[in-house]
Recover the amino acids of this structure.
C-alpha cells in the first residue's frame, strides 16, 4: 500500500496546482448525446464505434473489458493462470488484427499477450473497430481488421479527471488525468494509472488461484504543438506489471514481470492554406521485456520495435484524393525458452520490412466512393509481397448504405506469443519455436445498413478470411506422445478459413432509452495433419448481445443492462473424456455448453462528480474444470490453456469519477 500511496502523490503533484486555480464547478457544460456503441454512417469501411459514453457502461478498468457490448469482438483468457487476455475478430485470433494507437501500429509481438490490460479504459476517448481489409497506409499486417484507439487529448476541456473503482475480488483501480494549456500553441496531458489484485481465490476448489495477484503501474505524457502550418504530437509511456499465480498451497507457481517503454513522434505540415495538401512523418519506438516462469517452463524475452511512416497527401478536389508514402518496421528479438522437449537459449532474430504504398480515393459527393490501395512489402531475402486492397461505398439514398471490401494481408508469425497459453501446460513442444513464418491471407466481405429513422438502423454484414499460408499449433495429439504433445505445422497448401455473419439492430423507442441487439455467427475451420479440415477448437459458433440504457432527465441517473449469450464451440480431442465429480462426461456432444453473461450498472451523476455501482457475470456461470490435470501439475497432460468460459463467478464493483472542467 505504501507503493500505491507514493504513486498517487507523484501523479497528483503536477495537477494539484491546476486544481487550485479552478474557482468554481458551476460553469455550464453542454454535451451532445452520443450513443455508447454505434455503426459509423460516414466511414467508407464497416466501422463500429465505442464512444466515451460506451466505455462508461462497464467497469472498463482496461481495454480487454471494453468489448462486452460488442458481438464483433470476443474476449477470453489465453489460460487459467496468468490473466492474459486474447480477442477474436471475424472468428480468428487477435494477432491477425492490427491494433492502432491514433493510427500508429502498436501491441505487436511480445506486448500482445498482456497488451489489452495495459490500456486503461478511462484514458480512451473512443474505440473504432473496422472489419475487413483497411487502409494500406499503416502497413499490411491487418488480416481481419483494425482496432484504433483514440486517447484523451492534450486539448481536453478537463484539467483534472480522477477515476477509481474497487471490486469484491479485491481488485482496485485508480486513474488520474490532467490536461494543461501551457500556451495558445502548446498543450500536454498527464495520465497515470495503477491497479492491483491483492488477494487470490479458489472458487472451484482445484487448488489453483482463479485470478493472479498483480500490481501494475502505467504512466503516459502526451504533447501537442501547432501553428497554422505545422502540427506536432509526441509522447512517452512507461509500464511495469508484475503478476503471480498458480497453486495456492502447492509448488506449481507462475510469475510474470513485464516492463515496457514507448515513445512516439508525429510531425505534419500543411502545404496549402486550405489544407488540401500535406506531408507528415510518424515515428514510434517500443522496448518490451518479459521475465516469466510457469511451473518448470521458463520464457524470457526482449523485443525492440521501431516504426516510421512518411506520408504525402494531395486532395486535388472534392472527388480525387491521393496519398503516397513509405513505411518501415524493424524488430529485434532475444528469447530464452525452456519447456518440455525444448531448451532454447539466447535466440536472436532481426527483421526489417519496408513498404512503399499508394492509395487513391474517388468520391461523388456522399453517394459513391472507391478507395484503391496498393503496397509492396519488402520482407528481405528477395521476398516481396504485393498487397492490394479495395473498398467501395454506395449510398443511393439517405436511408441505405452499401459497402464492399477486400484485400490481402501478410505478417510474421511469433510462435510463442501467438500461442501464449502453451506455456501453461506440461506438454512436449515439437517444431521450430523460433520460426517467423510469413503468414498470408485474403479477406473480403460486405455490409448493408438501413436507417429507418435517425436513431434506428439495421445492419447486415458478411466477411471471409482465407489463408494461403499459416503457422498453427496442433494440440490434439498429432505427435509422438499423443495428447501430451503440442506440434507446430504449416498449412502446406491446405485450407484454413473463417466465415463471419453479423446483424446489428439499434433503436431509441422513447426519449433517453436506447436498445441494441447484435447477433454474430462464425464458421472457422483449419486443416490438421492426419485429420483434414476441422472446425477450429474453442471458437464459439455464435454470440448474441442485448443492451439497454435509460437516462433520466439531465442524465442524473443512468441505468445500463447487458445480456450476452455465448454459443457452443468444439472442444479439443483430449477434452472428450473429461468427467465431472459425479462421473458424467463434461462434453458428451464434444462441444462446450451455451451460456449467458449478465452485466448491470447504475450511475448517479452530480455536478462534476459521478458514483456508480455494478456487477459482471451476474448469472455466476463458470467453466467446470478450466485446468485439466490440476492434480498432477508437473505431469505431461497438465493443461491450463483450454479456457472457453468465465473462470470466476459474479463480481460486484463500485467506483467514482471526479471531473473539473475548464
Amino acid at each position: 500500500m505504501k507503493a500505491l500511496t507514493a504513486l498517487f502523490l507523484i501523479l497528483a503533484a503536477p495537477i494539484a496546482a491546476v486544481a487550485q486555480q479552478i474557482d468554481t464547478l458551476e460553469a455550464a457544460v453542454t454535451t451532445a448525446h452520443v450513443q455508447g456503441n454505434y455503426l459509423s454512417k460516414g466511414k467508407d469501411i464497416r466501422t463500429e464505434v465505442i464512444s466515451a459514453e460506451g466505455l462508461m457502461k462497464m467497469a472498463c478498468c482496461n481495454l480487454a473489458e471494453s468489448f462486452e457490448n460488442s458481438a464483433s469482438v470476443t474476449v477470453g483468457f489465453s489460460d487459467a493462470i496468468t490473466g492474459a487476455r486474447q480477442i477474436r475478430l471475424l472468428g480468428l485470433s487477435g494477432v491477425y488484427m492490427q491494433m492502432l494507437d491514433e493510427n500508429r501500429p502498436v501491441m505487436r509481438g511480445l506486448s500482445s499477450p498482456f497488451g489489452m490490460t495495459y490500456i486503461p479504459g478511462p484514458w480512451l476517448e473512443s474505440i473504432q473497430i473496422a472489419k475487413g481489409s483497411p487502409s494500406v497506409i499503416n502497413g499490411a499486417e491487418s488480416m481481419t481488421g483494425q482496432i484504433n484507439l483514440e486517447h484523451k487529448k492534450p486539448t481536453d476541456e478537463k484539467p483534472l479527471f480522477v477515476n477509481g473503482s474497487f471490486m469484491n475480488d479485491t481488485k482496485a483501480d485508480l486513474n488520474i488525468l490532467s490536461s494543461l494549456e501551457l500556451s495558445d500553441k502548446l498543450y500536454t496531458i498527464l495520465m497515470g494509472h495503477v491497479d492491483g489484485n491483492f488477494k487470490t481465490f479458489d472458487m472451484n476448489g482445484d487448488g489453483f488461484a482463479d485470478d493472479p495477484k498483480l500490481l501494475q503501474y502505467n504512466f503516459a505524457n502526451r504533447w501537442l504543438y501547432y501553428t497554422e502550418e505545422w502540427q506536432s504530437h509526441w509522447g512517452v509511456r512507461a509500464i511495469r506489471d508484475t503478476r503471480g499465480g498458480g497453486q495456492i498451497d502447492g509448488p506449481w507457481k507462475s510469475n510474470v514481470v513485464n516492463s515496457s517503454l514507448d515513445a512516439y513522434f508525429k510531425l505534419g505540415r500543411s502545404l496549402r492554406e486550405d489544407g488540401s495538401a500535406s506531408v507528415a512523418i510518424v515515428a514510434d519506438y517500443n522496448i518490451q521485456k518479459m521475465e516469466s516462469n510457469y511451473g518448470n517452463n521458463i520464457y524470457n524475452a526482449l523485443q525492440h520495435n521501431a516504426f516510421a511512416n512518411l506520408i504525402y497527401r494531395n486532395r486535388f478536389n472534392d472527388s480525387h484524393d491521393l496519398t503516397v508514402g513509405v513505411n518501415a518496421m524493424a524488430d529485434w528479438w532475444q528469447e530464452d525458452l525452456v519447456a518440455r522437449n525444448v531448451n532454447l537459449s539466447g535466440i536472436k532474430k532481426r527483421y526489417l520490412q519496408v513498404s512503399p504504398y499508394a492509395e487513391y480515393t474517388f468520391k461523388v459527393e456522399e453517394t459513391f466512393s472507391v478507395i484503391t490501395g496498393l503496397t509492396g512489402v519488402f520482407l528481405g531475402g528477395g521476398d516481396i509481397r504485393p498487397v492490394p486492397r479495395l473498398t467501395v461505398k454506395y449510398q443511393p439514398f439517405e436511408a441505405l448504405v452499401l459497402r464492399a471490401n477486400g484485400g490481402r494481408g501478410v505478417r510474421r508469425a511469433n510462435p510463442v506469443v501467438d500461442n501464449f497459453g502453451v506455456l501453461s501446460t506440461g506438454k512436449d513442444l515439437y517444431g521450430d519455436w523460433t520460426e517467423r513464418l510469413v503468414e498470408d491471407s485474403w479477406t473480403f466481405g460486405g455490409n448493408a445498413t438501413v436507417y429507418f429513422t435517425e436513431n434506428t438502423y439495421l445492419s447486415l454484414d458478411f466477411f471471409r478470411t482465407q489463408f494461403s499460408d499459416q503457422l498453427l499449433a496442433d494440440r490434439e495429439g498429432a505427435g509422438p506422445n499423443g495428447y501430451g504433445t503440442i506440434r507446430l505445422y504449416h498449412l502446406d497448401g491446405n485450407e484454413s478459413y473463417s466465415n463471419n455473419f453479423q446483424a446489428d439492430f439499434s433503436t431509441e423507442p422513447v426519449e433517453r432509452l436506447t436498445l441494441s441487439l447484435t447477433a454474430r455467427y462464425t464458421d472457422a475451420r483449419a486443416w490438421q495433419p492426419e485429420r483434414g479440415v476441422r472446425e477450429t477448437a474453442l471458437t464459439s459458433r455464435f454470440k448474441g448481445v442485448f443492451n439497454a440504457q435509460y437516462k433520466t432527465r439531465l442524465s442524473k441517473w443512468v441505468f445500463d443492462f447487458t445480456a450476452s449469450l455465448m454459443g457452443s464451440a468444439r472442444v479439443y480431442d483430449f477434452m472428450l473424456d473429461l468427467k465431472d465429480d459425479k462421473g458424467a462426461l463434461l462434453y458428451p456432444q464434444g462441444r462446450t455448453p451455451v451460456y449467458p453473461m449478465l452485466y448491470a450498472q447504475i450511475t448517479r451523476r452530480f455536478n462534476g462528480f459521478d458514483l456508480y455501482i455494478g456487477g459482471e457475470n451476474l448469472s455466476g456461470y463458470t467453466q467446470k474444470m478450466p485446468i485439466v490435470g490440476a492434480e498432477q501439475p508437473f505431469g505431461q497432460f497438465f493443461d491450463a490453456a483450454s479456457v472457453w468460459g468465465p473462470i470466476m463467478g459474479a463480481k460486484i464493483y463500485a467506483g467514482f469519477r471526479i471531473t473539473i472542467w475548464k
